[in-house]
Design brief:
Chain lengths: 421, 481
């Protein structure tokens, strides 16, 4: 029996040690940077594969920046990586493919960082659909609430991280890389990707279901930040009109309306105390709407040659950092050059304004549909899809479960207790 | 702290084992028990330290009551003790339920107190009641305060059972002279723990999304098609079994690592041939508690069939309510009560079962009944339960495709519960009388554990796989009860 017990415990420990130390040393998500060996792990070719969650989880806890931007790949790609002149420091903490669940958890974790004074959160319907509540790698990040040390252990013992580590070593040894990812925004590919997104979004949105519980969930997470005196600014992304049109053509307009109403209802239900050091004028919790067929999102697609590029968008779903910077400038109330100076670019989203905003967006849409040559082109494409609809992208629907709410509630209540009355 | 969390696996458990055995070897048995008690209290406080005083208060008060009952007289102290225990669980667990129902019936608007449910209150309260009754019946002696504290708080079984009776565990704590076979304790305990962790992490947690998807859709008012409803209900049947029996296996394995024997809690319940048989195999320690401390005091089956049915109904309705403060749990218990009554009646006319020549049919029908009853257990409201049941009845048609994954998961689940032996059968050769005595165990055929190098390597790999997949650290379902 002695030999059996030793073999069992020793083999289990050995498996874990070999597996974990390989991943830890390779550091595929570029978090620790402890060991760098040329030809082995010097190039972190797969650091993006977790959508930056592992890095974001750690940065939320230890960033010294006073302002962070959270959100999906629209934030990760669409906001500047650095803004040296931003008062108190700025950091882009976007996570590709994020969800309301992850954003709520990120808010709770961020509330533990005393340096934070402003959090900006980008959102649209994607975060509130019945998609899986979290990316697979979310669970190995500090976003779950575990201490950073455990997070390193858990990341090291994750099959996903191990696979990325192995791929990183192979890439370094063979000179390979994730070319598809690296070239995703290559100018010559963008016209094709603009084109592809018409059908892709149409199919993707055809089976979309809006889950209002996720709005409640996210704002409960935001309460942890508010309790610490952090100013929270949420905003609806300025996706390109082609994407907005795809959503409307498959009947998602009521969801757009519902999302805005639910956001404003959540804000109206709160009376947060004043922010410690606000970045923007106005209350500690506020919302902006940058969506809805404004001048920027009506811009023409890139020329088929790739030159000229669309100056504001890579693809309909993903905008360029120049637009992210303009969003921040708009929030700060500073004057901007055209086309960001128009009244339609960024409006305060309040309960009283929802009807007006939606009506104005519809007006602009109607005008666009009549006047714009690209609108005619897109309309023809959507008409063809309506006539012969492609199979929708059906996925199992996921809803937040009771444990999700319980854990969040426990963590937020703890943050509120720590903040005191 | 969850058994599948990294802080438990890599810090708490190794440290506690080390301290326990060092103290036992170099200091004294009693010192080791004190250390184990402190570790258990830390384990409990990790969740929410605000409820530690409640646990400590429960330990001290019940120990004092036990001393009074043992040394002076039973009444009124036993009644006071039972009422005090029921009052504490009533206050924390059922106050909202009670006030909500009063408001509904009387049209009042009494505010609900919204107490947070202290972790494990349902389990440790039952253990305390069983302790007081056993002391009054002279089946147990109060012993020392440390022994009592460990009886209640021993971390492997504190949160979700097995519900341990004082006379099962106290003699083990009191046995200062027994010698530890460290290799056997760790070898057997870690092997059982590995299987339990694998059940939880590799099976239950992978069933959860399919169940949550269907029940979540029902909760928000969607109509469920036949496929979605059945895959959701079946996935939940497997999720709750692998989750809870996995937890129980881990508890038994952990207890064994310290040299203590905890009673088994599951024995292949989805192989039950009737509802009666199901409750002999599912949450065995709860069934025993309800039988010994409620059903038999009510009269049991002594006063005729009708009275027996009434007693069964009372026990199951209260058993349902014990699981959660909602009428859906009561209905779940009521359904099982009806099932038990029906089976008792059938037994009078068909002592060998209705399908004695086709055992598989009895197993299938029982599994079907249990799965349907789980719908009320899982659903967040009656509306949601009816939507799932309507979907299962095909009232909404076949519905949308749910993809291949739920079907694959269900086939794997069925293959395991019907094709492989449960943990108790696998380890029958090394489980002791104490562990097995709670169940009238009918062992399944198949693989038996034996301490060989391939078994050690295979289980080590299973443990490794379970640990590296323990990302989600989803809570155990019974943590909520």
């Amino acid at each position: 029996m002695r030999r059996y017990a030793l073999t069992l415990a020793g083999a289990a420990a050995g498996f874990l040690l070999l597996f974990g130390s390989f991943t830890f040393l390779v550091d595929p998500y570029d978090v620790t940077g402890w060991v760098t060996i040329d030809g082995v792990n010097e190039r972190k070719t797969r650091a993006h594969e977790d959508g930056y969650r592992v890095r974001v989880g750690h940065r939320l806890l230890d960033t010294e920046a006073g302002t962070i931007v959270l959100g999906s790949s629209r934030v990760a790609d669409g906001f500047p990586r650095e803004m040296p002149d931003w008062p108190g420091g700025y950091e882009n903490l976007g996570m590709a493919g994020t969800s309301a669940f992850e954003l709520a958890r990120a808010s709770v974790i961020g509330s533990r960082n005393e340096n934070l004074r402003c959090v900006i959160i980008g959102m649209d319907l994607r975060e509130f659909g019945t998609y899986p509540r979290a990316h697979a790698t979310y669970w190995i990040t500090p976003l779950t609430g575990m201490p950073p040390l455990f997070s390193h252990v858990q990341t090291s013992l994750s099959p996903n991280a191990f696979a990325r580590a192995a791929q990183t070593v192979i890439d370094n040894a063979t000179g390979g890389s994730d070319e598809k990812w690296e070239n995703a925004y290559a100018p010559e590919l963008l016209p094709g990707r603009f084109e592809e997104e018409i059908e892709k979004r149409y199919r993707g949105y055809s089976d979309y279901v809006y889950d209002p519980a996720r709005v409640r969930f996210l704002f409960r997470g935001i309460d942890a930040l508010l309790a610490q005196g952090v100013q929270v600014t949420v905003f609806v992304h300025p996706v390109h009109a082609w994407q907005e049109e795809a959503a409307r053509r498959v009947g998602m307009e009521p969801y757009e309306d519902a999302l805005r109403r639910d956001i404003t209802a959540e804000i109206a239900a709160r009376v947060p105390s004043e922010a410690r050091e606000p970045c923007f004028d106005g209350p500690a919790l506020q919302a902006w709407d940058f969506g809805g067929y404004q001048d920027v999102s009506l811009s023409a697609p890139p020329d088929p040659s790739g030159d000229p590029e669309n100056p504001y968008y890579y693809v309909p779903a993903h905008y360029r950092p120049v637009l992210g910077e303009a969003i921040l400038t708009r929030m700060r109330g500073q004057e901007q050059e055209p086309p960001f100076d128009t009244a339609s670019f960024g409006r305060h989203l309040t309960a009283d304004a929802v009807d007006t905003l939606m009506a104005e967006a519809e007006e602009r849409r109607q005008a666009w549909l009549v006047d714009d040559e690209w609108a005619h082109y897109v309309t023809d494409r959507f008409d063809a899809l309506d006539a012969d609809p492609p199979a929708p992208e059906r996925e199992a629907r996921h809803y937040l479960n009771r444990d999700d709410f319980r854990q969040l509630e426990r963590d937020v209540a703890r943050a509120e207790r720590q903040a005191g009355p | 702290m969850l058994f599948n969390s990294f802080e438990f696996l890599f810090v708490f458990l190794p440290a506690t084992l080390l301290v326990y055995y060092l103290l036992r070897h170099w200091v004294a048995h009693h010192a080791a028990l004190v250390a184990l008690t402190i570790a258990s209290l830390i384990f409990y406080s990790w969740w929410d330290i605000r409820y530690l005083p409640l646990l400590l208060g429960s330990i001290v008060i019940n120990h004092l009551l036990g001393l009074v009952i043992a040394n002076h007289r039973t009444q009124p102290w036993l009644a006071i003790g039972i009422i005090a225990n029921l009052a504490s669980i009533g206050l924390f667990k059922y106050a909202d339920f009670f006030v909500g129902n009063v408001n509904s019936v009387a049209g009042t608007a009494i505010p609900e107190p919204h107490f947070t449910l202290p972790l494990a209150i349902s389990f440790f309260t039952f253990q305390q009641i069983s302790f007081l009754v056993d002391v009054a019946r002279k089946h147990a002696k109060p012993g020392s305060l440390t022994g009592h504290a460990l009886f209640v708080s021993f971390f492997p079984q504190l949160i979700a059972g097995p519900i341990v009776r004082h006379d099962q565990i106290a003699p083990q704590y009191d046995d200062a002279k027994r010698k530890d076979d460290l290799a056997e304790n760790i070898g057997v305990g870690l092997s059982i723990f590995a299987i339990g962790l694998a059940k939880k992490v590799l099976l239950a947690d992978n069933m959860e999304p399919f169940a949550a998807s269907a029940f979540g859709a029902a909760a928000r008012g969607d109509e469920l098609g036949l496929l979605e409803a059945w895959t959701g209900a079946l996935a939940y049947s497997f999720q709750i079994f692998f989750d809870f029996s996995g937890y129980s296996d881990m508890a038994i394995g952990l207890g064994r690592m310290f040299g203590y024997r905890l009673p088994i809690n599951f024995n292949a319940p989805y192989r039950a041939v009737s509802v009666i048989d199901f409750w002999r195999r599912w949450h065995i320690t709860l069934s025993r508690f309800l039988r010994d401390y409620l059903y038999i005091p009510l009269g049991g089956g002594r006063n005729g069939l009708v009275r027996r049915m009434i007693n069964v109904a009372i026990v199951m309705l209260l058993g349902g309510l014990w699981h959660g403060a909602a009428w859906t749990f009561v209905v779940w218990g009521g359904l099982h009560g009806l099932g038990l009554a029906w089976c008792h009646m059938l037994n009078r006319f068909f002592p060998n079962g209705l399908f004695s020549k086709a055992r598989w049919l009895s197993i299938g029908i029982t599994f079907l009944f249990v799965t349907i009853a789980w719908v009320f257990f899982r659903a967040e409201s009656f509306d949601a339960a009816w939507r799932v049941l309507a979907g299962m009845a095909g009232l909404n048609g076949v519905g949308n495709s749910v993809g291949d994954e739920p079907f694959i998961a269900i086939v794997i689940g069925l293959a395991i519960v019907w094709g492989l032996p449960d943990t108790v059968s696998i380890f029958r050769n090394v489980l002791d009388r104490m562990t097995l005595e709670t169940a009238r165990v009918e062992f399944q055929k198949g693989w038996r554990w034996s301490p060989g190098p391939w078994t050690a390597t295979g289980l080590a790999f299973l443990l490794f796989l379970a640990i590296v997949n323990a990302w989600t650290t989803a809570e155990f379902i019974y943590y909520n009860f």
